[in-house]
Design brief:
alpha/beta, binds fe (iii) ion, binds N-(iminomethyl)-L-glutamic acid, TIM Barrel
Length: about 425
């Protein structure tokens, strides 16, 4: 008999189960949430053991201390996966926020030594304790809003020693986090002043830091901001080659404000994901589709900065797997939590509500190389589960800002 220590029953259960073997969802499956009316999901020791319909959970053997909840028709679905955040920072950017009006201004502020550089200064000045406390609070806030897996980048250190400090602080926060944390070394976010005339030297030193990153297991992936006037494809090519050689995944801030050919480059180097892609060319999109690489759409930054948001239909029509993320950061996207990203993914990017849910769960898990571990309610996966305060999951996209997340389980434990 199958044993369970957690049973959520009487639910509108969104399983997001794959049709056959697990793949990023494209085509008709891009909006298939696999609903079961009057469904149930059961878990044991942090992993899902079974799902089903009606009273068929009767055949489970519930352990003595089992948690049993009747969802009373409410939605029960996979925990949300946020595959792109910059949570490791101190300070806010009120001045920039108040004055910025366009994407071009964003790059002008950066070129003038503000923007990312302002956050780098504030983070450098803050003590380890302060940054760690901020990280822990932000991870907790994300969990409250339904996130059970979160990617966190460094990137506000710039110089290798400061980047390593950030990665070590993220490792500390990860060690006692209630949810799963995927760490990324954002090695090339902006060029710090000491390297103004030595871009190649900066990349060389970032590559040098990879030895420490791998020796201390500080990150799973390496990222770079590939953008006009920031880093070009040719600048970051050696960095990504070294990252891959070291066994790390790579992902890119690609074609966020301008088409610099970064989406096609992401496909060529078999990146784990290509992120932003608001200005990706048709050729770049075709290349992502051929390589099966998820495009992570970040509507929050388009919303706050005011540039044209990524058009989801271009990606969906081309059969590129689409994921959504918050991009939480103090500059382009101070938004909190995946429900808002889902709502903006629908209203700004043109996803359907169900496509946005797929993009914020299983496809986002694929963007983090976790497509077979979380993102769907399927036996064998981590018991990352949400209970919503509604019987219609489309409310996530519609009632923007409503407190819909009622219960959050990460690896079978109630975390919010
Ligand atoms: O994803 N564009 C590059 N990186 C971040 C913003 C960083 C910042 O402005 O602090 C992004 O938009
Ligand atoms: Fe970002």
């Amino acid at each position: 008999m199958t044993e369970a220590d957690l049973l959520l029953r009487g639910a509108r259960l969104l399983t997001l189960a794959p049709l056959k073997e697990e793949h990023p969802r494209v085509g008709p499956t891009a909006g298939d949430v696999g609903p079961i009316v009057n469904g149930w999901v059961a878990a044991r020791d942090g992993a899902i053991v079974a799902t089903g319909h009606g009273e068929s959970h009767d055949r489970l053997q519930l352990v003595e201390s089992a948690v049993v909840r009747n969802a009373e028709g409410r939605v029960v679905m996979p925990g949300l996966v946020d595959p792109h955040t910059h949570l490791c920072y101190a300070g806010e950017r009120w001045e920039e926020f108040a004055t910025r009006r366009s994407g071009a201004d964003y790059l002008a502020v950066l070129a003038a030594g503000g923007g990312i550089h302002a956050t780098v200064r504030a983070t450098k000045e803050a003590s380890d304790e302060t940054v760690l406390a901020l990280l822990r609070r932000r991870i907790g806030d994300a969990a409250e809003l339904g996130t059970t897996t979160i990617e966190i980048k460094s990137g506000y250190g710039l110089e290798a020693s400061e980047e390593l400090r950030q990665l070590r602080l993220i490792a500390q926060a990860k060690a006692d986090a209630p949810i799963d944390v995927a760490v990324t070394y954002l090695a090339a976010h902006a060029l710090p002043a000491p390297y103004t005339d030595d871009r190649a030297g900066f990349i060389r030193d970032a590559r040098g830091a990879l030895d420490t990153v791998t020796a201390e297991k500080l990150a799973e992936a390496v990222d770079a901001f590939v953008e006009k006037g920031v880093f070009e494809v040719d600048d970051v090519r050696p960095l990504f080659a070294a990252a891959k050689k070291a066994g790390l995944a790579v992902s890119l801030h690609a074609d966020q404000l301008n088409d610099v050919g970064a989406a096609a480059f992401a496909a060529r180097i078999h990146a784990r994901s290509a992120d932003h892609v608001a200005h990706a060319s048709a050729e770049g999109i075709r290349a992502l589709a051929r390589a099966g690489i998820p495009a992570v759409l970040l509507p929050g930054s388009a919303f706050f900065v005011g540039y044209a948001p990524p058009e989801a239909r271009r990606f969906i029509a081309a059969r590129v797997p689409v994921a959504l993320a918050s991009d939480h950061n103090p500059g382009t996207s101070p938004l909190e939590g995946m429900p808002t990203a889902i709502a903006l993914g629908v209203t700004l990017c043109g996803l359907t509500p169900h496509e946005a849910i797929v993009a914020a769960t299983v496809n986002a898990a694929h963007a983090l190389g976790r497509g077979d571990r979380t993102g769907a309610l399927v036996a064998g996966r981590r018991a990352d589960i949400l209970v919503l305060d509604t019987d219609d999951e489309r409310e996530l996209a519609y009632r923007m800002g409503a407190p819909l997340v009622a219960e959050v389980y990460a690896s079978g434990k109630r975390v919010a």
